Amino acid sequence: MAVALRGERAFRLAARTPTLAFFRSAFVARKRNYNQPNWLGVGLAFGTSAALWAYLFKQHNDDVMEYERRKQERQHKCTDCS
């Protein structure tokens, strides 16, 4: 019974779809105004990019410091430490 109802509902939606194809959404119908950029979006994009680059440089410096520390440990040949 439930399968038949689901099939009937899908058939009704499929039958209605072509009529909806001729209507445009209000979000799409309006033309973009390029004279007034979306400064919030621009700021978020550049801010996110800057934050990711800062994190990349910080992570790189941490990795280089860890590499140098491990390199020094490998070269350390002290008999008192062992």
Task: Explain what the structure shows.
With 82 residues, the chain is mainly alpha-helical. It is elongated, with a radius of gyration of 31 Å. It is built from three helices and no strands. The chain starts with a helix and ends in a 7-residue tail after the last helix. The model has no long low-confidence stretch (mean pLDDT 80).
List the helices and strands and how they pair.
Elements: H1 2-20, H2 26-29, H3 39-75
Q: What is the terminal-to-terminal distance?
A: 78 Å
Principal-axes geometry comes out as: elongated
Helix content estimate:
over 70%
Query: Which regions contain 5 or more consecutive residues with pLDDT less than 50?
Result: none
Q: Could you describe the largest sheet, including whether it forms a barrel?
A: none
Alpha-carbon Rg, integer: 31 Å
Structural class by helix and strand composition = mainly alpha
Mean pLDDT: 80
Question: Which band does the percent of strand residues land in?
Answer: under 5%
| H-E string | HHH
Q: What is the number of helices?
A: 3
What's the number of extended β-strand segments?
A: 0
